[in-house]
Amino acid sequence: MTASNPLTTAKKSFEFYSRLNLTLLTGLKAHDLAEMAAILRQVQGSVIYHHTHHFLVQHQHLSPEPPNDFAYWIRNILLEERLGEELAAIDVMRFSTIRDLRDAIVAVIENFIERTGNVRAAPAGQEFHFMRSVSFVMPTGLRAANLLEFRDALMQVSRGSIGYHMFDARLRLERDDNDFAMWLQEELGEDQLAAALRNLDPYTQTEHGLRRRMLGLINRRLES
Amino acid sequence: MAATLKDYIPIVGEGVVSELELLGARLAGKRVINVNSTRVGGGVAEILGRLIPLLNEVGLDARWEVIQGTEDFFALTKHLHNALHGKSHTFTAQDHAVFDDTTARNLKSLDLDGDIMFIHDPQPAGLVRRRAEAGGSWIWRCHIDLSAPAPGAWEFIEPLVRQFDLSVFSSPQFARTLSIPQVLVSPSIDPLSDKNRDLSQSEINDILSRLGVHSDKPIVTQVSRFDRLKDPVGVLEAWRLARRRVDCQLILAGGGATDDPEGAEVLREVRERSDNDPDVHVLDLPPTSNIEINAIQRASTVIIQKSLKEGFGLTVSEALWKGKPVIAGAAGGIPLQITHKYSGILTHTIEGTAFWIKQLLSEPEFANRLGTNGQNHVRANYLLTRHMRDYMLAFLFLANINEDVIKL
Q1: Does A124 lie in the same domain as A35?
Q2: For B112-139, what is each residue's pLDDT tens digit?
Q3: Nearest in space to B179 (alpha carbons), one of B194, B166, B190, B189
Q4: A124 contacts chain B (CB < 8 A)
Q5: B chain contacts of residue A66, beta-carbon cutoff 8 Å
Q6: CB distance A129–B403 less than 8 Å?
Q7: For A18, which of A161, B83, B156, B315 could close a Cys bridge (C-beta 3.0–4.6 Å)?
Q8: Closest in A45, A131, A134 to B406, CB measured
Q9: How far is C-alpha A106 from the geometric centre of its chain's CA atoms?
Q10: Å from A20 to nearest chain B CA?
Q11: Is B270 exposed, middle or buried (0-12, 13-18, 19+ CB in 10 A)?
Q12: CATH of the domain spanning B5-188+384-400
């Protein structure tokens, strides 16, 4: 179904939430790749989420986005450039659950250990410390009932709100889709716009760039 | 007059302050009792003095209590503090008796009627013995570097720590194997304090001229106590190597030489080695010299923090906040504040430090980019508003300790 009018009113308004993260320390640390793989297998999903997403929160000015923490440690501390690159290149968008993402990360590391027999240890004091993120989700008070209102709200919402609806909804809450695309399709019948938003890779751009692209797509639709 | 949240809006944006207000509304009326061992002096007292009015402004009922102790007690807790930092010390049964006795006396005199007891550092940790009777949730906030405690030090405090609901540490390296959750809350700087607030060019010029520094050449600066672990002698050597190629002057500004014999010795050595070079300014400043330090940092072209060992290293955030390119030793919490060649430079040697001083003085565009990125990184991660947010999230976490995603 494609909406004929961009001012179609939704039965159910989109409610914008914001997300704030608190970091917890697990007390677990890895000295080498074998320990890293073993710990990765047993930790909670929120640990995997933390180390693949916190950089996006803490270094939002960096462009292009840096790799996940595992890749960073392996490349910069263990000095394994190739493996670091392989891990950085894991396409997080391919996965719909944290479990699948974890399996992919562990498989790349274990495969490398098997191939090379690598047992190089990190220098003392530079071990990998495992942490996890606890997310606090709260309504921002902003709602949208049509595409115009949605565009206006998207211009105002915090970085945490975009992160929540784009990253967390899909991967962490396992909703199969990001919240924006889902609402645009289901409530407004904006199939093409939803598909375009679904295809944006939030992991390869800054929050600023992501917001600008989403607004560009919506504005084009509003002008059509 | 104490700053209000509104004063932070031009610095962090309205969104950040609204989030703090939203969190405050969820915690409205919660009685949070902070307990530490001193009301003045030291980073903990400084941060509490600034945070408590802001927490109250968003609706919490935050208070601050200070434990009283004998000379014996504070001598013991000084040993404990040093031992937690790695200096060896043997704790005796008498030490435990002194600690327990002071705890018992404070339990009688302190008003611990609250919803959240926020206990700072080891000195008041024994108050947790009142937990069953006083009720409420108990948080232990550790401001100390626990990465390599001496044998016996952690064991002294651990039986108390495990009675809390939650612990809070400043850096991932300080995490322990503990039965209670451990939260990471980095320290912060206050952008409105004298040490960090904006200064006019005339204020900066006046202060520099009072300190005898001329702005006719680029200034390379390290602000740090005269302590071997901050390697002021290494900074002097690195500057000398750099100056062979690029003309510049050096400021080594710090304190700690009056009440610390080792500090006085390091200061003497630095002065001797500076050889009365008119381009070297060794400034032994009193502890109240906040505006002076601010002005020195703002007048600098490049700032160094060549630490060999470091806790969190908040002086790095102070320097980055002024938008300056920073060259720092890759020690302690410094790599959290600087991503090499993006928001500053991390070095390991005197020669490496000299190399980067030359580079940054010769490539001002690159140096400016580092400074701008560093300032943005501090704005997002190391300002007082983020510190306040994390504390409120920790308070909210107490009611949902087994959850990963908490709907408020």
Answers
A1: yes
A2: 999 999 999 999 999 999 999 889 999 9
A3: B166
A4: no
A5: 339
A6: no
A7: A161
A8: A134
A9: 18
A10: 8
A11: buried
A12: 3.40.50.2000
Q: Which amino acid is at A36?
A: M
Phi, psi of B40 (to 5 degrees): -130, 150
CB B183 to CB A173 under 8 A? no
For residue B381, list chain A residues with Cβ-Cβ distance below 8 A. 58
Instruction: Identify whether residues A67 and A111 lie together within a single domain.
Output: yes
The alpha carbon of residue A27 is apart from the nearest alpha carbon of chain B, in Å, by 5
| Residues of chain A with C-beta less than 8 angstroms from the C-beta of B380 | 58, 60-61
- List, for residues B361-390, the tens digit of each pLDDT value: 999 999 999 999 999 999 989 999 999 999
pLDDT computed for residue B95 by the predictor: 96
d(CA B153, CA B82): 9
Q: Which chain B residue has the Cα nearest residue A54?
A: B381
Q: Which of B381, B400, B405, B407 to mutate to test the interface with A (most CBs of A within 10 A)?
A: B405
Domain chopping of chain B, boundaries: 5-188+384-400, 201-381
Query: Same domain for A120 and A175?
Result: no
* Res. A209 pLDDT band, cuts 50 70 90: confident
ipTM, two decimals, is 0.86
- DSSP secondary structure of B25-80: HHTTT-EEEEEES-SSSSHHHHHHHHHHHHHHHTT-EEEEEE----HHHHHHHHHH
For residues B40-58, average pLDDT: 89
Q: Please answer yes or no on whether A60 and B26 come within 8 Å at the CB atom.
A: no
User: Which CATH number is correct for B201-381, 3.40.50.2000, 3.40.50.720, 3.90.220.20, 3.40.50.2300?
Assistant: 3.40.50.2000
